[in-house]
Amino acid sequence: MSISKKFAVVGNPIKHSLSPRIHNIFAREFDLDISYEAxxxxxxEFELSIAKLFEKGYQGLNVTLPLxxxxxxxxxxxxxxxxxxxxxxxxxxxxxTRCADSTDGRGLISDLNNKNITLKKKEIVIxxxxxxxxxxxxxxxxxSPKRLTIINRTFSNAEQVADQxxxxxxxxxxxxxxxxxxxxxxLVLNTSSAGILDQDFKxxxxxxxxxxxxYDLSYSEELTPFIKIAVNSGIKNHFDGLGMLIEQAALSFxxxxxxxxxxxxxRNEII
Length: 271
Known about the structure:
alpha/beta; Rossmann fold; 6-stranded mixed sheet; 6-stranded parallel sheet; 21% strand
């Protein structure tokens, strides 16, 4: 049977990606004939590699760490969301135009809604200040939290992210990682790649309160390294990013195919 549509996810590292399984489940729902690969790309070769993939007939690409900001620079036509984030996770061609969107933030909010987690008037903490953090901040601020606090190993990077979104409605604060929190977060979102890269986590004191919910944008068959730290600190309400991955993938799939897939997928079908 010939392959009618070619897609891929690009990143580095990429072996852990579950995107191929998810998109193939979506394709089966509509009896679509697709291929979807996980491709490792070096950051310094990003533009040339992506251009070659589109020349080879790929109709859509997902982009993950650490390439999301490079994808932003690559694109000619940016959605409002990706223009705000300056970070892109979905690429496609429209004629000779390189088009881009960021579906991460909308995917996160959809998954939080599925889990009955509301952000309105809540204290939200984001760990990390890279492309993944930037991708979700506009969507979080639209939910009208009480405050969004950014904590990052390099304080100046957190300052830059806060400045980037200072024009949006909502309170954004930044705290050095060495400081102790003087409030209890309702939700802590880990966007850093420390766990994936087997790096040690540096966390501020008092990060985990009695009623704090923890959400790690990373995902794993077992508990992620960050969630293990949270559980050892007494956190009972915790989630990894698999649900967000499915939701953002569905939005990408819809952009590429015009079809809106069912996202109620059993975890065991994917991991």
